[in-house]
Design brief:
The protein has 332 residues and is an alpha+beta fold. The chain folds into 2 domains: 21-136, Immunoglobulins (Immunoglobulin-like), CATH 2.60.40.10; 198-322, no CATH class. Helices cover 38% and strands 23% of the residues.
């Protein structure tokens, strides 16, 4: 039995030596603490709470959970700053300085602040000590509760602020007078433009054709522009005369819309088809007709307009037809 005791003592001594020579087996936890710059303060004053965590590798401090202070609504956190520095023998120190204030008197207990860390990759938490803070009211004077005698009114010398309302009122009055005379002398607004002219659809088309003929486009080599404008005038006339969509439609779609109820016979439809198709070929540079064709095309459009005219059908004339000749038209 004495032999077993001797063996146990030797084994314990061996473990103690291992702890001294191999510190990895006795790695300390971080040392954490909290302190107040003062234990008492008056309402509205500020106090500094300092949280300190000192540690050595392989311990690594991850976060200091000072947000636990928000659980006390009467304590207000004004500012929080974290600092890191190194000490001797590989010691690392993490500090958080927190500025606190309160506007309610009483005694407050600051709970332990959790400090999250990792030791050899294993997460753990240490907590600081609990603190107490006394918030006191502002002391009153000894005679604050006594009834004081009535004091006279203390008059102060006049200054610019006393006359400021009168000065502003004078400026406002002058501004109103100036506005009144400005409105009286302001020029009268120009008269509204005259109402748009209304004219029969065939007259508007004939006016456009007359202006186009005076420009002598095809005589100057602008054959494509000439026939594009001629086609546009004809299509606009079809829209006004028969209430159809013609500017953005093909020749076949236009003829499909001109049903028999419009009173157009087959001969006129065939004339219109031939005119639109030929003009389209010229407009897109797929055909080169003789010079006589350009005048004949103009005559054919004029004849078509006169044969399909309706005197009682009036439409609103655009500005380019009610006034002067437009400076230029876009090709369609």
């Amino acid at each position: 039995m004495e032999k077993n005791c001797t063996q146990n003592r030797l084994f314990g001594l061996f473990l103690l030596l291992c702890l001294f020579h191999f510190p990895a087996f006795a790695q300390p936890n971080p040392n954490v603490g909290a302190a107040l710059s003062q234990a008492e303060m008056q309402i509205g004053d500020q106090v500094t709470l300092t949280i300190t965590a000192s540690y050595r590798p392989p311990v690594e401090v991850k976060s200091i959970g000072f947000d636990i202070l928000n659980r006390e609504p009467r304590l207000e956190v004004l500012r929080a700053q974290r600092f890191e520095r190194e000490g001797e023998d590989g010691l690392r120190i993490a500090e958080v300085e927190i500025r606190l204030t309160s506007f309610d008197s009483g005694y407050y207990f600051i709970p332990p602040v959790p400090v999250a860390y990792e030791k050899n990759g294993e997460p753990d938490t240490a907590r600081t000590n609990e603190l107490a803070l006394a918030v006191k009211t502002i002391p009153g004077t000894a005679d604050s509760l006594q009834i004081q005698p009535i004091k006279g009114i203390i008059e102060e010398p006049p200054n610019f602020r006393d006359f400021l309302p009168y000065f502003i009122g004078l400026l406002a009055l002058l501004a109103l007078v100036a506005l009144f005379f400005y409105l009286r002398r302001r020029k009268q607004p120009p008269p509204p433009p005259p109402p748009p002219r209304r004219a029969p659809a065939h007259l508007l088309a004939l006016e456009q054709l007359g202006r186009l003929e005076k420009r002598k486009l095809w005589q100057q080599g602008a054959v494509k522009e000439y026939h594009s404008e001629l086609t546009r005038i004809l299509r606009e006339y079809l829209e006004r005369r028969y209430d159809i969509v013609a500017l953005e439609r093909t020749t076949g779609e236009i003829l499909e819309q001109l049903r028999p109820k419009f009173g157009m016979d087959e001969e006129m439809k065939e004339q219109l088809r031939e005119l639109l198709q030929t003009v389209d070929l010229v407009k897109f540079a797929k055909a080169q007709p003789p010079a006589t064709f350009h005048g004949q095309a103009m005559d054919s459009v004029v004849e078509f307009v006169n044969r399909t005219r309706r005197e009682e059908l009036t439409v609103e004339a655009p500005d380019e037809q009610a006034g002067q000749e437009p400076s230029g038209e876009k090709n369609t």
